Amino acid sequence: MExxxxxxxxKPISSLKIGKxxxxxxxxxxxxxxxxxxxxxxxxxxxxxxxxxxxxxxxxETILTTNNVSPSxxxxxxxxxxxxxxxxxxxxxxxxxxxxxxxxxVFVATMKNxxxxxxxxxxxxxxxxxxxxxxxxGSTPVPIVDFAGTNSSSIPGTVGIESTPVIDxxxxxxxxVSNTLESGNIVFRLHAVDITTGAEKxxxxxxxxxxxxxxxxxxxxxxxxxNQRTALTLSNGQVIVAFSSHGDIWxxxxxxxxxxxxxxxxxxxxxxxxxxxATGIWQSGRxxxxxxxxxxxxxxxxxxxxxxxxxxxxxxxxxxxxxxxxKLDPKxxxxxxxxxxxxxxxxxxxxxxxxxxxxxxxxxxNVLIGGGxxxxxxLLNTQNLGKMQTNDAGVLQNVQAxxxxxxxxxxxxxxxxxxxxxxxxxxxxxxxxxxxxxxxxTSNIITTPVSTSYNWYLATGGIMALSANGDNxxxxxxxxxxxxxxxxxxxxxxxxxxxxxxxxxxLWDSTMIASRDDLGLWSKYVPPLVVNGKVYMATQSNQVVxxxxxxxxxxxxxxxxxxxxxxxxxxxxxxxxxxSPTGSNLSATWSVSGLPTGATGLFLIDAQGRTxxxxxxxxxxxxxxxxxxLTANVAGTQTKQTVLLNVPLAAAVTPITAIADSxxxxxxxxxxIDANISTFWKTLDTATPTTxxxxxxxxxxxxxxxxxVSYLPRQDGCVDGTAFQxxxxxxxxxxxxxxxxxxxxxxxxxxxRSYACDNQTFPQIQTISFPATNARYVLLNFLDAxxxxxxxxxxxxxxxxxxxxxxxxxxxPQVTLTSSSGSIVAGQGITFTATVSGNxxxxxxxxxxxxxxxxxxVTLSNGRASLITTGLDIAGTDVVTVSYSxxxxxxxxxxxxxxxESVIPSPVPVPALPWIYQFLLTIILFGIGVWISxxxx
Length: 937
Description:
With 937 residues, the chain is mostly beta strands.
């Protein structure tokens, strides 16, 4: 301390003369700062749309400005890898206590029914995660083919948690709806989970069910034809849940349900058109609006009158409310008021959903604004929505805002009158982003936009959010599809930042330095989350990409592609980079931790000079998904990034034949399975080539349990014919392709934007993993090719260097050893659990502590056995191992290599205070010391 004082004052401590008032002030000031850490005010984002108005705006953003959001100062800083696609907007709670520490927390839900809680400011594994499917015996997320019959749509793979959850910060509860397949039945459940632990609350989850009766006819909720896309919201102690369909697949109804937020008991259920089918509420994922009195506002979709003779009207203002804006009581779901456009029948007949987007409530007003597929925006008075009148006489205004459809909905910058008043932003399908001025005195918007973005192709429109610091530094953040039509495919995506005061000024976008900032595959209809100086963008690339201000110290940005990889055939490869702020590659020393038992990681430089992390697993590696921690050391500065490794029980098999829809010599169909990456199959490329789709079928020679396929694009330095969207079909006779277990878009990461035929293009191998299915033949159906160069274009032929098939290795059990804690203290018990995989494994496991058998062998129960002990050496390190002895059916597998689990006692770590707090604490102690010394003077 004396050294610090000498440096500050250049005087010996004995010569200091400091007044008591100064010391008291210093102590008070220092303590006040320490007690109020962190000092910056932060807002929570507890639902999609940011607030109950669904304004889509954070007006308390003090860090990001129109000056510092630029390619040289702003970009990707890390990503949060997850298991599964994301269709829900991430949510944010600041200063939350989890595991004894304070965190700003971002919550992410995936289509594999997994909810994650991540520290929002640092790269690392989740603070907690909850896999809903693993907690419900025998359940899995629902394959999309069970709903839609195909993976070739904007939702491939599985359907789990699709809608955006809602958080009640007063009870620290997150509510969400899961979707599971159980014994062939589709089940929706409402969950209430503690946001600090991930534990279910209030006796949940509860199965969603119910019915309504109209004219003596009872209509029951049928989960097999319903889709829970609309984001959840809270009102007057109720959780509001709404349903529509998957792609208008018959025969569905729209539903709205309210549940008591404290008990999860259903409070009310409402069918907006019991005389007809359809009339779903989907709103492109937006939630209903809730006003200050708690009334709920939403838009309904098409009504179909096919179930009655004579035909019933799809909207009558009494019982049927197709194509309508509804005002509902949250507890009874009684219709308090409504508006139905006069042309509702035209909307029905031409699929012009009003519910293609949802409403917003202009803050500080009674004006509801929103529109549907006709591209117009209605302004409605919440005190009198307008009912059904000729020429829509009851509305405040009807404005043609875009020539395309409305999907993303409006966002609102509630500027003060001194700043020019509120601005309403809209981004229609295949149109610009437009800003409209709103006049609070007339409750109208000026129909001529005050600002317009540059002309771009926004298929399905831009999905927006707005950040500002009150009236200043407004930025419109737009998530857009970068390539082609997104309704029947998953295209690459792009995030764009526009000056909200002048939309023609683009501040930044994720393609300017694509090697650093590219976000991967686009999450349809998911808006950015902008809060506390960071932008969180959900993707279909198994990650949330986090953007923010780049390090002023020049620290590297670490990227890894793909963020999640299947170790099919015992190997997984990640293309990794340490990038400068300009996106150039930096020389780095790499390390990896978190590898599972039996796995090794090597850092290799490929023929193109790219760095690869090659992870290899062996027969002792347990099945499961693991978080690997990558560290790049650049000139003494370390930067971290995590990736996910999925270890399935799968071995490669070589097909005996390959039959393609066409081929051209020397690139014949046999080249796709010849184990030579220098050769490749290619379809005809004459002056009038055949067009997509292209297909190639593989014969394994016998029926096997198929669980995956890999596709290596041509490796000759040209990208022509590299497949983008794919389908996998299985068959036992090569004629009837009855099963479609997988389909989506290949994920090439940022590299695809620079693809060409330049002898420098070498796309990564692509892996496809799916539940094991018995079949002999595999058909790969390629629907289109990678578009490349500028303007983006693609060739009509297909190609492949190597195709491999992987079969489930169910004959060899795997043993996984886990513990209930990583460290113990005296008297504290610890539970070790051995889990044996395989086909209904039986037998015993033997636990060993430090090489000595501990107790007698334990018989498996449901493939598991546990050891509970308090007798470990708490002063050092104990090594617990386990071996498995199977029954007669597993006799060949009784000598598996034991697995190890180290138990290392350690004190609870005390996080280091930032230097400024250490300095202030030093001042406090110094002041107290001086004050004490003055008592003796």
